[in-house]
Amino acid sequence: MKKVFLAFAPVMMIAAIMTTSSCKKDEATFANVLVAHASPDAPGVDLLIDNSKVNSAALTFPANTGYLQVETGTRNVKVNVTGTSTTVINADLALEEGKNYSVFAVNAVANIEPLVLVDDLTAPASGKAHVRFVHLSPDAPAVDVALDGGAVVFGNTAFKGSTAFTPLDAGAYDLEVRVAGTTTVALDLPSITLQAGKIYTVFAKGFLAGTGAQALGAEIIVNK
Questions:
Q1: Looking at residue 36, what is its pLDDT?
Q2: Which of 98, 118, 138 corresponds to the end of one domain?
Q3: Is residue 5 part of a domain?
Q4: Any domain includes 218
Q5: Residue 10 lies in a domain
Q6: For residue 122, how many C-alpha atoms fall within 13 Å in the half-sphere facing its CB?
Q7: Nearest residue to 35 via CA among 2, 57, 4, 7
Q8: Rounded-to-integer distance, Cα 159 and Cα 167, Å
Q9: How far apart are the first and last CA of the chain?
Q10: Of 118, 153, 174, which marks where a domain is finished?
Q11: What residues have CB less than 8 Å from 23, skipping those under 6 apart?
Q12: Is residue 123 part of a domain?
């Protein structure tokens, strides 16, 4: 994993920037940070750390950066509309050494905001995968994620809610997203394959009434 001082970046390119900290390079400590664009109607964005732009290509919905090593401490993170000085998110993040974070840009663009989660990347037991669900569809009701026609795996998760990473047997699953507490299926999630030893985030994306790229769907992130 490449060390990047004070940097987030899209998957296409990572630009390292120099820290203004008084610490020497070999004394710096790092956290692991993943940034995901989960705002369905937001344009591509630029990422700025402590007011320094660190990407050369836009991060677009629903892509993510993967984990990057970011210098610890309180970092100011701005999300700007690509190629402009229009800031849509301005947040200070306190990052601790050795911890893992996911930062989601969420909600409709008119109300875009950051959702920060601390990620437990403890290795799964033999034959297991770890899976978490995050509800990031702004206009969808609270949902259950269940086996196709069967038992609920993740129950009653509302917008911006998330579950803990949960151990599941490795293998192929047909899942469905239901309106919480009912058998009404809002979204089918067929043929999801979980590999032993892997850690995944599944997030609901798009709008309930959306079409095309903004349609209700799901995105899978391989955390580890």
A1: 94
A2: 118
A3: no
A4: yes
A5: no
A6: 7
A7: 7
A8: 23
A9: 12
A10: 118
A11: none
A12: no
pTM for this prediction: 0.85
On whether the CB atoms of residues 78 and 90 are closer than 8 A, the answer is yes
Three-state DSSP class for 78?
strand
Contacts of residue 144, Cβ cutoff 8 Å, sequence gap at least 6: 152, 154, 155, 156, 157, 177, 178, 179, 180, 181
Q: Are 171 and 197 in contact (CB under 8 A)?
A: no
Q: Are 189 and 177 in contact (CB under 8 A)?
A: yes
Q: How far apart are CA 147 and CA 125, in angstroms?
A: 21
Number of domains in the chain: 2
Say what the pLDDT of residue 66 is.
87
What is the total residue count of the chain? 224
Structure tokens at 170: 């490795």
pLDDT of residue 19 exceeding 60, the answer is no
Distance CA 2, CA 54 (A): 15
Residue 32: give the domain boundaries: 25-118
* CATH number of the domain where residue 198 is located: 2.60.40.1120
Same domain membership, residue 132 and residue 114 = no
Residue 102's alpha-carbon distances to 54, 207, 223, in angstroms, are: 18, 21, 9
